[in-house]
């Protein structure tokens, strides 16, 4: 009788061990990884008569305040573009303006959850041009508060005639 009891215990323990080993792991809650670490980018502002600014800027997504548009998030969460804050082109422009003491202004469009850049260093489109935003030589397909920047990106705001 004792041998039978040992066998049952051994078989039960082995079966339980195999069942636990083959069971899917229980999902642990993920901790959100911040993607809004500051990055260094090269920012260029090209006006109709030449370069208005060029420099390396350390930036991350943050609230932006303009005279025309007010204060709004400009951190990649705009329009649901990213689930957490990220560095953006318009935030980089804002950081450059504050650090290098020049002005810019933009209109906030709630329907797009983003700014348009209207004026940089007192240069505006005047109805015949706009400020195009490109990253690494390609115009961005979304607003400047929605596009994620990576370290080393080349960001350009270029006065572009219609």
TrEMBL record:
It holds the Pfam family DUF4430. It comes from the Bacteria. The keyword Signal applies. The keyword Signal applies. Residues 117-160 form the Transcobalamin-like C-terminal domain. Keywords: Signal. Residues 1-27 form the signal peptide. Gene3D superfamilies: 2.170.130.30. This is DUF4430 domain-containing protein. It comes from Streptomyces violaceoruber. The lineage of its organism: Bacteria, Bacillati, Actinomycetota, Actinomycetes, Kitasatosporales.
């Amino acid at each position: 009788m004792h041998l039978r009891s040992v066998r049952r215990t051994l078989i039960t323990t082995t079966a339980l061990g195999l069942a636990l080993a083959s069971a899917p792991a229980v999902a642990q809650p993920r901790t959100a990884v911040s993607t809004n670490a500051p990055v260094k980018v090269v920012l260029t502002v090209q006006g109709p008569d030449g370069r208005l600014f060029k420099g390396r800027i350390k930036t991350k997504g943050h609230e932006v305040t303009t005279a025309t548009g007010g204060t709004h998030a400009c951190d990649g969460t705009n329009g649901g573009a990213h689930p957490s804050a990220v560095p953006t082109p318009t935030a980089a422009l804002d950081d450059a303006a504050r650090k290098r003491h020049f002005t810019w202004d933009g209109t906030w469009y709630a329907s797009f959850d983003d700014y348009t850049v209207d004026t940089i260093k007192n240069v505006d489109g005047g109805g015949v041009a706009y400020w195009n935003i490109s990253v690494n030589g390609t115009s961005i397909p979304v607003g400047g508060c929605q596009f994620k920047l990576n370290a080393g990106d080349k960001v350009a705001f270029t006065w572009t005639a219609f």
